[in-house]
Amino acid sequence: MLIPDSSREEHLKGNSDLFSELSILSKDKIIKKALPRIKIKVTSEVISSIITIIISIGFMLFYLSHKDIFDALFDPYDKDAPAVTSCDPGYFIPTNDKTECKKCSVNYCIKCSGNTRRNTCQQCHEMYAPVRDRFDRIKECVRSCEKGIDYKCVTCSGEQCGSCNQGYILFKGKCLDNFSIKGFYRTKEDNQSVILINKPYAKYIKELIVDGESAKASLSVTFPKKGEHIVLMILNDNELESGERMFYNVPNLFSIEFSTQFRTDNMKTMKEMFKDCTMLETLDITNFNTKKVTDLSYMFQNCVALESVVVDYFDTTNVKDISYMFANCSKLISVSISYFKPQNVIDMSGLFYGCSGLELIDLENFKTEKVEYMSYMFAGCSSLPSIDVSYMKTNNAKDMSYMFYNCSKLNKLNLNVFDTKNVNNMEGMFEGCSNLPAIDLKHFDTKNVKNMNRMFYRCPKLERIDISNFEEIKGDPKFSKSGIFDNNSSKKGNMKVNEKFYDCVKENIPSKWKIEFNKNNSNNDKKNN
Hints:
Elements: H1 8-13, H2 16-23, H3 27-65, H4 67-74, E1 91-92, E2 102-103, E3 109-114, E4 119-124, E5 128-132, E6 138-143, E7 153-157, E8 160-164, E9 169-171, E10 174-176, E11 181-187, E12 192-195, E13 205-210, E14 213-215, E15 220-223, E16 227-235, E17 253-258, E18 282-284, E19 308-310, E20 334-336, E21 438-440, E22 464-467, H5 477-482, E23 494-497, H6 499-505, E24 514-517, E25 525-527
């Protein structure tokens, strides 16, 4: 029977026999009986202490690993201090304390997010890749490639690069930046020899990389298999003074790119640079510096497969000639010239000649103050329903012959801003504008014009014309013979005209046209006889 400690003494006093028995027990027996109880008590205390220590260590480790969170939660700060608006890369602004920048918890982190719950890396420095945890958070930023491979390598596999930074090309596991030109060529037969570049520039080729294999410098290459091929050209002189006819009539070239190594800073001419590249579909010339270029004429002429060109970043400060620059680019759907400012150009004849696929041209920022030659400028743009030339200044223009020749879809044209006081040639200016119903040219100053032959030939829908300020043309026998109309002109219509000018052209005006004379010359209306 177990006896409570509080009543043990009284119980022993009342039971002398039991007390006597206990008093004679040997010390050894007492120790042996007490020892088990002592062992149990000591073991429990040790276990309790160990558990306490483990918990303390765990809490300390948790605190150290989440120190920024606890600092953000419990650190006091001056609420009256000014707020921080931005931080250096690798630092962030806590949401509960915007008075200072906190360091990101991840090395090589350049963008962080921080709040009362966590602060994590959102983006790693260039050349470092994110390692994510199971919650898709970036827990570490590590180099994506070893330094020993290539410092412009983005992804690696063993000792080779898997991909390269922009501006670099992957070749045999290395990232190259010394190539100048990357050309894409298409062959239709096996063992076909292909010209890579025109002869005058062959001397600048230092090395070729043909379909991933090194090759000796050469003007042409023979491809063993038909198909598409990539050729990297490494030049020994990347600062050429001329690009004239560089790829002229290279028929197998269907795409081309120029790296930053290809310098055009000293080029003075790019005339006919890609002329007659009939297979050329795309090209990247965004690295071209045209500050010293004076001649861009015929640059893309007859590139019949080219669908788009971006040249609005061209510096045309010194350019004088852009004539026939896009001539016969029949598949050209769009040409970006919104910031193309040819403020010193003198000749833009045939600029869009034969661009039959063009449906829109933005000339808002087109600077034409010094232009003298505009003949055939839009000739053959048969898909253009209208052309906004309201921003063009023509005060120095001398030649407008065939300017809108064969613009067969053109149904609207406002030329009220045209200053023609210096123009001497308007031959065939609107010939072939077969959908144009009316045209107002009363603002035209024609005192210097010597040729208006065929001006309105093949305009069957043109029924309203105002040429009331046109002046008499003297001493031009060709004009009196050819006239401004032909048999394909509209059979009836209305014309406002100067009486003296009428005398020059009356033989060519269709018989059923109603003629209204300029009031400054006559008040009479009459039917053509």
